[in-house]
Inverse folding.
């Protein structure tokens, strides 16, 4: 019984140490688990803006040619 409690305490301690902030500053640099996904979303938003601008210019040219 005491061995089980010691093992359980060792596992809990390991989890807390593993989850502790190690001071690497990764979050300060903007690095995080979903960085590649958020970067892809940002690029998609930029492409969307370019497409909207192109569509607006195309509509304006069509209106001028009438």
């Amino acid at each position: 019984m005491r061995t089980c409690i010691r093992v359980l305490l060792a596992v809990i301690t390991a989890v807390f140490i593993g989850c502790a902030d190690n001071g690497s500053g990764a979050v300060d640099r903007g690095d995080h688990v979903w960085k590649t996904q958020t970067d892809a979303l940002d690029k998609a938003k930029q492409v969307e803006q370019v497409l909207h601008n192109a569509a607006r210019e195309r509509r304006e040219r069509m209106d001028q040619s009438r």
The chain has two helices and no strands. The helical segments are 2-19, 35-65. Residues 25 and 31 are 9 Å apart (CA to CA).
